[in-house]
Amino acid sequence: MFRFSAIDLAASQFLPDVLTQLRQAAPNLAVEFVYRPKNIVELLEQGDLDLVLGGMFDAPANIHARQIARMNYRFFVMVSHPLATKNNLTLADIAQYSHIRYSPAGAVEPQVDNLFKQHKLKRQVTLHTSSMAVLIAGLKAGKHIAVLPSEFTTQEPTKHTLCALDIPSIPAVDLMLYWHSRSHKDPLHRWFRQLWLDVIKQYC
Question: For FRET with 187, which of 40, 96, 116, 193 sits at 20 to 30 Å CA-CA?
Fold first, then answer.
């Protein structure tokens, strides 16, 4: 059995194609999706995870990493949000509203926090969640702001309800694939990694 982990946004985007190819090429291969844990490195080292897809994090020498793409992120709000139609937005404008913090391990949220600190602004985080479904519900419920990939408005069911704010301030983040060195040369693991890479390249 192959065990893999990814933030639920990435899983929902890529997993249907991965499962389709698995059904065609290896119908008897069992896979398990492990919801994004905080102790990723430990699980890889223990053999409880085989593959991790996510943002960049510091990994020890026994963890292999491959950069897949550069992901651009934007601040998102509901189309009914007061900032949705405002021109010449600044980070100070965004700081006046409540934010949702998406909390799985990754590099995006710390960069956003640093961005506010550099401008001597305080980010008002009033909702923390590790679930993308809860994040979207939080946006739809009121006047929150959240950080999401730039392409998010092209995806159903959010493309007519959310909009990206016109303030391209967030540094791009590498989308990475991680695995343990013990599996690096394993033929089946290499095939599974390549399957993921081929699927992701269709989107990135």
Answer: 40
